[in-house]
Design brief:
Length: about 700
């Protein structure tokens, strides 16, 4: 608080009020918000020192509420300045809903109307026009869920009188940067522009900003006034001006550069620094003059594709956003430049070591293809061959468990877009794994502190040999059932299921029209037991042999029984939970940093493989079993597997939305068969090999 004194006497009352609140017993009523932790420069270990300051603040004022914000990926992947989870639990902001987007846009234009005292209907009409355009264009829908980008969309729509640039984020940043540069350049209406004052051309000013952004991002330092003078001279050595004149000219203007003092400047948001740094990498005139980071080695010339490939392999967390925006900038010049970049990022040979840094480059290629898919025209026949290499790389990232779960999940979604060709994922070539016949110990031991009462007593159950699917049923596998009219054919449904379907007029799954959930290689979610049963009947018809839901005993044996040791594991992979082995909410009980809060591509947790070889038996989606949810002393002869019963049915495996305890292989839950839980799915079993 002593630092606030430099702002003068006007802030003294605020300082004294805050001091009194923190020290006078009213700390519980104080909320301290520290915004943009990831935007603090790394120079001089500033983030590490800031971490210590925040910790001390929390310790000294334990009754106060302290909220620290950061971009998710930056905070998650750098443990050096991550705050202790027990004191600072992590929450991720939810994307804006349609209602929130409408609220912001409408209130923005209302504020505009008040500012200019407009009595016409124009502001309301322009708000409606923008909301209609967002609704029409998928790429705008994807961007508008993020507050900063929605703000940019609205500002540009306002300033351009209803016109928005075509393309993705890079096009928005380009237009927003143009507006900020204009504001910074011209200042107040009577001020002279930088061009008029110092003889700078617009292109020279833009190149100077790009080089400033690149250097600041490369070195993770503030932008010193002397640095600005030096860059301006390098872009135009004929300029005649004094450092003091430029200092005064810049200090009193707000726009693309903001003055923290007369000697230190920054961009208004880190993302603008990343965008302009990306532009520097793409623009040929500027690119040739850049100095690569000390950690980067480029064998040939400092060219655009080789540059980004080297940066991603050396410091992926620092350069990922700049690289993505650079690709968007390159697309504005020519599609061929982006395809050349994709080829460079995905070489022909894939290393066996999943820790190889080249996986970061391939991951970037996948994100480029997703973000700029419309502009790159992925569906054109001429481009299909170019997709093969990134597809192979993305498949290896998923299958080998390369990278961390959040990045691997993004790779899985990119793979879905390009066409996931893993057998048994997007086709009906079900990949079966064998569970041999024999007795196993079902349930949890009395000394298992994590166990619920309905997992006891531990008892021996004899199970006939069977096969179970390697993966849960995916959306790509469920879609043919819907498209073939499976919801309208009573032959596939149980009597109670058919009555439910008719009563509710259900002709498709609950998330059928939601593209954010209905991703080809993700497990079909929002599925009721009745729907799962109908699908199994249809699938049996397609396969020519029986496919059904596993019984509860079959599911548990497949998930945990190790025939080599003769023991039942607590988790599919072993007796201890290991962070990153399952798609669950690890933050709930502090067992890890990951909470993806959504389904993921099946099979992307190979480390969590069950003894039989099945994947995703812990987390991702709860899986329906054939059995009714009865007493845990399993008895297959007591009618619990009667398919005509309307009783509550068993769910197993936990899900992305649940925490550690339900992820244990013995944990069980149950719901009425008509319930379409948003995190409910299923996998199939079959005894066909043993007839």
């Amino acid at each position: 608080m002593s630092e606030l004194g430099k702002f003068g006497e006007s802030i003294t009352p605020v300082v004294e009020t805050l001091r009194a609140a923190l020290t006078g017993g009213r700390g519980a009523g104080v909320l301290i918000v520290l915004d943009g932790l990831d935007e603090v420069s790394e120079a001089g270990d500033r983030r590490g020192r800031l971490k210590q300051v925040i910790g001390s603040l929390a310790e000294c004022h334990s009754n106060a509420h302290i909220l620290v914000t950061s971009r998710t990926y930056a905070y998650r992947n750098d443990a050096r300045w991550r705050l202790p989870a027990q004191d600072f639990p992590v929450f991720e902001l939810a994307p804006y809903s349609d209602e929130r987007i409408a609220f912001y846009v409408e209130h923005y234009y209302r504020a505009v109307a008040r500012r200019y005292m407009s009595l016409s209907d124009e502001p309301q009409a322009r708000a409606a026009d923008l909301l209609a355009e967002i609704d029409r264009k998928k790429h705008l829908q994807d961007l508008a869920v993020r507050p900063l980008l929605l703000t940019m969309i609205t500002l540009i729509h306002d300033h351009q009188r209803g016109k928005l640039p075509e393309g993705g984020r890079a096009a928005l940043y380009d237009k927003a940067t143009e507006l900020l540069v204009y504001q910074w350049n011209h200042g107040a209406p009577r001020d002279k522009s930088l061009e008029e004052t110092f003889g700078l051309q617009s292109r020279e000013l833009t190149e100077a900003l790009e080089r400033l952004a690149y250097d600041a991002h490369r070195d993770q330092v503030d932008i010193a006034a002397e640095k600005i003078f030096g860059v301006l001279h390098r872009v135009n050595r004929k300029l005649q001006f004094s450092a003091e004149a430029v200092r005064q000219h810049l200090y009193h203007r707000m726009g693309i550069l903001i003055a923290d003092s007369e000697d230190v400047y920054r961009f208004p948001h880190r993302s603008f620094q990343e965008y302009l740094a990306g532009c520097a990498l793409v623009n040929e005139d500027c690119n040739r003059k850049l100095t690569p980071p000390a950690s980067v080695h480029v064998e040939n010339e400092w060219d655009f594709p080789a540059n980004l490939d080297s940066l991603m392999r050396s410091e992926p967390e620092r350069w990922r956003e700049a690289a993505l925006l650079a690709a968007g900038k390159a697309l504005s010049f020519a599609r061929s430049r982006v395809w050349a970049l994709v080829r460079k990022l995905c070489p022909a040979n894939i290393p066996d070591d999943p820790e190889d840094p080249q996986y970061w480059s391939a991951w970037l290629a996948g994100q480029i293809l997703v973000e700029y898919r419309d502009g790159l025209r992925l569906e054109d026949e001429e481009n299909l061959e170019q997709l093969e290499r990134p597809r192979r790389w993305l498949r290896c990232i998923v299958e080998r468990g390369a990278m961390q779960p959040p990045e691997r999940a993004e790779a899985g979604r990119a793979l879905a877009l390009l066409g996931d060709d893993r057998p048994g994922v997007c086709d009906l070539d079900i990949q079966w794994v064998t569970v041999p016949a024999g007795a196993f110990w079902m349930g949890s031991a009395d000394d298992d502190k994590q166990a619920n009462d309905d997992e006891k007593p531990r008892h021996k159950v004899d199970v006939k040999a069977f096969c179970i699917a390697k993966y849960p049923i995916t959306w790509a596998q469920f879609e043919p059932f819907v498209e073939a009219g499976g919801y309208n054919n009573s032959d596939y449904w149980t009597p109670a299921g058919w009555d439910w379907r008719q009563e509710r007029s259900i002709d498709k799954p609950s998330y059928w029209d939601d593209e954010d959930w209905r991703i080809a290689n993700h497990p079909a979610n929002g599925i009721s037991w009745y729907e799962a049963m109908a699908y199994c009947k249809w699938l049996s018809e397609q396969l020519g042999y029986e496919a059904r839901l596993p019984t509860e005993a079959e599911w548990e044996k497949a998930a945990r029984w190790d025939p080599e040791t003769g023991k039942a594991r607590i988790y599919p992979w072993g007796d201890e939970y290991i962070s990153g082995y399952a798609n669950i909410d690890e933050t709930e009980q502090g067992v890890g940093p990951y909470y993806l809060n959504r389904t993921t591509a099946v099979g992307m947790y190979p480390q969590g493989r069950a003894p039989c070889g099945a994947l995703d038996m812990s987390g991702n989606v709860w899986e329906w079993c054939l059995s009714g949810c009865r007493n845990y002393l399993y008895n297959s002869e007591d009618e619990r597997n009667n398919t005509n019963s309307t009783e509550t049915r068993v769910l197993r495996g936990g899900s992305f939305f649940y925490f550690l305890r339900p992820a244990r292989a013995a944990s069980r839950d149950g719901f009425v068969p008509r319930f379409q839980g948003w995190n409910f799915g299923f996998r199939v079993a079959s005894p066909f090999l043993y007839y």
